[in-house]
Amino acid sequence: MKHKYLRELEVPAGVTCTLEKRIFKCEKGSISIERKIIIPGVIVTISGDKVTFTARTGNKKTLANIHTWMAHMRNMFMGLENAFVYHMEVCNVHFPITIKVENNHLIVSNFLGEKEKRTAFILPGVDVKINGVHIEVKSPDVEAAGQTAANIERATLVRKRDRRVFQDGIFITSKPGADS
C-alpha cells in the first residue's frame, strides 16, 4: 500500500506521547498537555519517538491540515520545555483600577468609575500573577495562555466613548514569539 502523503514529526527526548480515541497527550515530568486531533482522511500513529501522519489520497488541503497539526504539536513540545508567557499592563487615566484574582476569574474594580465589577475567565492550567500594574499570564499550553490574555484584555474594552480620550484598560505588551 503506497501512501501519497507521509510526514513524520520527531518527539523530543524526555517527552512521552500517547494517542487514544483521537486525544493526543504529551507529558514531561508533571506537566501534561492534551488536544483532540481531527484530520479527515489522515491516519495519525505514534511509534517510538516519532509521530507519523499518513494519507492514501489527498490534495493541497490535506497536506495543509497535516502541517497545521504538526505546528500544533511542536507548540505542545515547546510548552513542555518552557511555558508561554504573556505580559500585560494596566493603564488608567481617569480612575484608579483595582485588580485581583479570585478562583478562576480576574476581577477588575472601579474601571472608568463603574460600580459594577468586570470579570475575565482564566482557563484551567493558566497561572496569572499580578505585580502592581504588570500582569503575567503563564501556561505550557499556548492556546490557553493566549485565550486568557485575550479574555483579560476584552474585559476592559471601552465602549461608547472616544478611545483617544478614554485610554484606560489592560493591554498585552508582549507575547511569546513576537519580537519585543
How does this structure look, described?
- By secondary structure, the chain is an alpha+beta fold.
- The chain has two domains: 77 residues, Ribosomal protein L6 (Outer Surface Protein A, domain 3, Alpha-Beta Complex), CATH 3.90.930; 91 residues, Outer Surface Protein A, domain 3, CATH 3.90.930.
- The strands form four sheets. A four-stranded antiparallel β-sheet has the order 11-12-7-13, covered by helices on one side. Strands 1-6-5 form a three-stranded antiparallel β-sheet, with helices on one face.
Q: How is the secondary structure organized here?
A:
Blueprint: E1 5-10, E2 16-20, E3 23-28, E4 31-36, E5 43-47, E6 50-55, H1 60-81, E7 84-91, E8 98-102, E9 105-109, E10 118-121, E11 127-131, E12 134-139, H2 142-155, E13 169-174
Antiparallel strand pairs: 1-6, 2-3, 3-4, 5-6, 7-12, 7-13, 8-9, 9-10, 11-12
Pattern of helices and strands: EEEEEEHEEEEEEHE
Mean pLDDT score: 90
For the record, the CATH architecture of the largest domain stands as Alpha-Beta Complex
Distance between the termini: 49 Å
- Based on secondary structure, the structural category is alpha+beta
